[in-house]
Structures are given as C-alpha cells and as structure tokens.
Design goal:
The protein is an all-alpha fold and 222 residues long. The protein is built from twelve helices and no strands. The chain is globular.
C-alpha cells in the first residue's frame, strides 16, 4: 500500500509539473480527471491504511507538488480539483488521533512555505490557496495546533501589514485582487478562532478605518 501511495504522489507531481509548464491547458477535462483519480486513490489508501500517511509526510517533493498544482498552475478548475483533494484528505483523517493529522501537515506547508510567496505574487494567484487554508481552519481542529505551526500573534501582525501595504488597484470585478480578499478573509477567520487577538491588533481603530475606506470604498471605477 505504501508503494501505491508513493507512485500516486509521483504521478500527481509529474502531472502538475507538466501542466504548470504549459502556456495553455489543451486537455482540461483529461487533466482534471487524472488529478481527481489520483487524490481519490490517496484518500482511499489513507482511509483503509492510516499508516500510509507517513508516505505523504515523507514525500520529498510534496512542497513542489503543492506549489505546482495549487498556486502556480494557470487553470482555476485544476487548482480547485487539488484543493478539494487536499481538503477531503484533511476532513477524512481528522479523527485519527494516532498520527499527525493531514490538516496540521498541509497548514504547515501553507503558512511556513507559501503564504509569503502567494502574497508577493500576482494578485490572480491566491484565491483558491486562501480558500483552502480558511476551509481547513474552519472545518478541522487545526487551530488548536496553530501556535506550534506559526505564532498566531505574529501571523495576525503579518496579515495586517500585508493588507496595509497592498496597492488597491482593482478596476472591475473581473480584476479582483484575490490575494487581498484572501488576506482579509483569513484575518477574519483567525479573529473568529482567536477573539483575543482583536484586542492585540496594533492601532486597531486606524486599521479598521483603513479597511473600510481604502479596501472597500477607495477603488478606481471604469
């Protein structure tokens, strides 16, 4: 079973790498089907043989697989396919108390390795990434371990500063800054899970005024 998990992870990585290197996805349905089948195989393996999760945790290229198939890929439908596969694994294995939970594993990758990368990248990259992070925070108990992954107060401060320095340059709804929206939604989710952080927010009133004025109302219009 471990061998099957390793081969499936390798297939997903190779598939994501090939897609990421193309300017245009020519066979979207085929690519989507392959990704769905791959994550379905992983889910069934983990459900029936929980010990096989160690193959996921020890896969050398898991960071690259995650980046290629969730962040850098240019097709949102394929990003969403990866996001659903990851979320299904997290939810399915959340009650397995004998191992490190996938929700903790993937949250660590997102917060430690790729949050800054997504924030600093094109504003079109972050939508699915942030939605997955928020879904995992809201639908699992990973927030209980969040301080071990990344200090919550420091994370809130980083999100606040990232929002404040971001250029508000949306013109139309189709030009939406998905990373800015993701930052705001992630901050809101953290306040829901850690209400005490609202009071620790530096210059809270000024920040709230900034969000209301700059982020919501001070946008160029066509």
């Amino acid at each position: 079973m471990h061998r099957l998990v390793e081969q499936t992870l390798l297939m997903l990585h190779m598939q994501a790498s090939m897609i990421g290197g193309r300017q245009k996805v020519l066979t979207l349905m085929t690519e989507k089907s392959l990704l769905e089948q791959g994550y379905d195989v992983l889910l069934k393996c983990f459900q029936n043989f929980p010990d096989s999760l160690t193959c996921l945790y020890n896969y050398d290229n898991i960071d690259a697989l995650f980046k290629d198939s969730l962040i850098d890929i240019n097709e949102e439908k394929l990003q969403t396919c990866t996001s659903k596969g990851v979320l299904d694994i997290c939810l399915s294995m959340e009650d397995d108390a004998h191992q490190r939970k996938p929700s903790e594993f993937f949250m660590s990758i997102m917060l430690k390795d790729y949050l800054e990368y997504v924030v600093d990248s094109s504003h079109t990259k972050g939508g699915v990434f942030f939605k997955l992070m928020i879904d995992i925070l809201e639908k699992t108990n990973v927030h209980e371990k969040l301080a071990e992954i990344r200090p919550v107060e420091g994370l809130v401060t980083y999100l606040q500063k990232s929002i404040e320095v971001r250029q508000i340059n949306e013109i139309t709804a189709s030009d939406m800054d998905h990373s800015l929206v993701g930052l705001l939604n992630l901050l809101r989710t953290l306040f829901t899970k850690f209400p005490q952080m609202k009071e620790k927010l530096p210059q809270k009133n000024k920040f709230i005024e900034f969000i209301l004025h700059d982020c919501l109302f001070n946008k160029d219009t066509v």
